[in-house]
Amino acid sequence: MHSLRRTWESIANDEGVSELDQHVLSNHSFGSHNVNATYISQHIDHLAACADKIDAGITRRIRGEPHRERGRRRDRLQSVA
Predict the structure, then answer these.
(1) Contact, 24 vs 51, CB < 8 A?
(2) Does the pTM exceed 0.85?
(3) Three-state SS sequence of 18-65
(4) Which one of 5, 7, 12, 56 is CB 3.0 to 4.6 Å from 17, fit for a cystine?
(5) Is the Cα dihedral 22, 25, 26, 27 positive or negative?
(6) Rounded CA gap, 18 and 51, in Å?
(7) What per-residue confidence (pLDDT) applies to 80?
(8) What are the CB-based long-range contacts (under 8 Å, 24+) for 69-75?
């Protein structure tokens, strides 16, 4: 289960999703890392757009398609031991 979570977080980072958005979407607390983050309110539409970005990144990797924004080819997803 944690391997999937790590993969999801890694792809979120590659897709340019902010650390704060990653914390919220993965249900991690974020106020302990940066007290200023507790003042930020995120709209559900914004979080849905971030989740869609991650989903598109996962789909591209499964298909073996190149990463569009950076022009680099990404390897297919592989399981980790």
Answers:
(1) no
(2) no
(3) CHHHHHHHCCCCCCCCCHHHHHCCCCHHHHHHHHHHHHHHHHHHHHCC
(4) 12
(5) positive
(6) 11
(7) 57
(8) 69/16, 74/14
